[in-house]
Specification:
Helix content: 25-40%
CATH superfamily of the largest domain: P-loop containing nucleotide triphosphate hydrolases
Order of helices and strands: HHEHEHEHEHEHHEHEHEHEHEHEHEHEHH
Largest sheet: 7 strands, parallel
Number of domains: 2
Distance between the termini: 42 Å
Radius of gyration: 23 Å
Structural class: alpha/beta
Strand order of the largest sheet: 3-4-2-5-6-1-7
Bound molecules: adenosine monophosphate
CATH class of the largest domain: Alpha Beta
Length: 433
């Protein structure tokens, strides 16, 4: 299928051509016709699938058809998203696709001065992209009028829940007109999100794209067993020896992210951190420099990195393994986008071994183990590998359907089957729920 087959208007086709998209992604192929038919949509899709364009393109096209003039303060489409970084990226996408159309997009988020946002709202906006807190704040001050709202997009609904925005979302639902078209996107569908979706959608059509496990399979993955105290030296070793140009490094904590940056800077490796304690301008600068490739290493916490879209990001390094398997999938999904090669390297210390098992179970494959490195260590409770053992080719012991990794070459080996994981599981598992 081509974009022309989706009955897109010429200015949008031209804009897509300019950004270099040749064919629609599966979510775009499925969602765009549904949105054109004015149905509500329930999209189960994560970042990296092209979901932003899947809602942005039809909204732009439908708004440019409609005859309603933008009166001052009248918002016609609202996109609600959990983080500032995502909000900025979504606005960039809207700007790209609507560049030859008389559509005014605006992004508003917290952590920066309100006055420029108030001024921009006063001038009139068609499409507003917002994070919940600032949106409700400016609405409360009378700068936003939803009377003419035609589209409401709820992006990353599951993350809204994780970040504690669900009450703000519910508040907003009471404010916006009942008669509207609603597009609801979530990577996962926990019960609370299902409940929310049934509350705010009317006869929705569900679109689901590639389950997370297959996303993970497209990305080359490796795990290094390493002592906690050796992680910084291993990171420097990998950055220097493994031909890693630019890398996004994930840290469990904000403090840890700052410490990694300091350790790298001591070795003259340019790095910057993004996390919730950094000012908005510091976060934006770091992201911009990383995208421009003037910054080599970006160190991020999960929330700060959520949805970051960086073209051609070849390496993701999990300095700490996340305790929630979905976070692992989201993290490694920053690389290997749109069919490009990507590699995800994970460090695993003794305490994190239980997380590794959970992750492997969730992605239904064993992550190949790199045994030969200067900081290699043995994880107690894991049977040592027999001398001379090569790749087993076996799926993870917990695998239900035997899907295996696409990695078959090189000197990587699969981890040995653990003798017992009960100790690690009971001591180091820290699930939130
Ligand atoms: P998203 O899931 O919206 O975060 O998009 C992920 C990445 O895919 C972004 O870099 C988009 O610019 C890119 N993208 C979206 N649609 C297409 C397409 N049809 N062809 C190629 N790249 C795309």
């Amino acid at each position: 299928m081509q974009f022309q087959d989706l009955k897109l208007i010429a200015p949008i086709l031209k804009a897509l051509d300019a950004v270099g998209y040749t064919t629609p992604t599966p979510i775009q192929e499925q969602a765009i016709p549904i949105i054109f038919r004015k149905n509500d949509l329930l999209g189960c899709a994560q970042t990296g699938t092209g979901k932003t364009a899947a809602f942005a393109i039809p909204i732009i096209q439908m708004l440019s058809y409609s005859k309603v003039k933008t009166a001052k303060k009248n918002i016609r489409a609202l996109v609600l998203t959990p983080t500032r970084e995502l909000a900025i990226q979504i606005e960039e996408n809207f700007n790209q696709y609507s560049k030859d159309l008389p559509i005014k997009n605006l992004v508003i988020f917290g952590g920066v001065g309100q006055q420029p946002q108030r001024d921009a709202l006063k001038k009139g906006v068609d499409i507003l992209i917002a994070t919940p807190g600032r949106l409700l704040d400016l609405y409360g001050q009378g700068y936003i009028d939803f009377k003419h709202l035609e589209f409401f997009v709820l992006d990353e609904a599951d993350r809204m829940l994780d970040m504690g925005f669900i009450h703000d979302v519910k508040k907003l639902i009471k404010i916006i007109p009942e008669k509207r078209q609603t597009l609801f996107f979530s990577a996962t569908m926990p019960p609370e999100i299902q409940k929310l979706s049934s509350h705010i959608l009317v006869d929705p059509i569900k679109v689901e794209v590639t389950p997370e496990s297959s996303t993970a399979e497209k990305i080359q993955q490796e795990v290094y067993y390493v002592k906690k105290n050796d992680k910084k030296d291993l990171l420097i070793h990998i950055l220097k020896e493994k031909n890693v140009g630019h890398a996004l490094v994930f840290s469990k904590t904000k403090h840890g992210a700052d410490r990694i940056v300091k350790d790298l800077e001591k070795k003259n490796i340019q790095a910057a951190a993004i996390h919730g304690n950094k000012s908005q301008s510091a976060r934006q600068n770091a992201l911009k420099n990383f995208k421009d490739r003037t910054l080599r290493v970006l160190v991020a916490t999960d929330i700060a990195a959520r949805g970051i879209d960086i073209d051609e990001l070849a390496f993701v390094i999990n300095y700490d393994l996340p305790n929630i398997p979905e976070s692992y999938v989201h993290r490694i999904g920053r690389t290997g986008r749109a069919g490009k090669d990507g590699k995800a390297i994970s460090f695993c210390d003794e305490e994190e071994y239980a997380f590794l098992l959970d992750i492997q179970k969730s992605i239904r494959m064993e992550i190949p183990l790199v045994e030969q490195h200067p900081y290699a260590m043995h994880i107690s409770g894991v049977a040592p590998k027999k001398a001379g053992a090569k790749k087993s080719g076996k799926p993870a012991s917990s695998s239900r359907n035997g899907q295996s990794s696409s990695i078959t070459s090189g000197n990587r080996r699969r981890p040995s089957a653990p003798r017992s994981d009960s100790r690690n599981r009971s001591t180091s598992r820290r699930r939130d729920s």
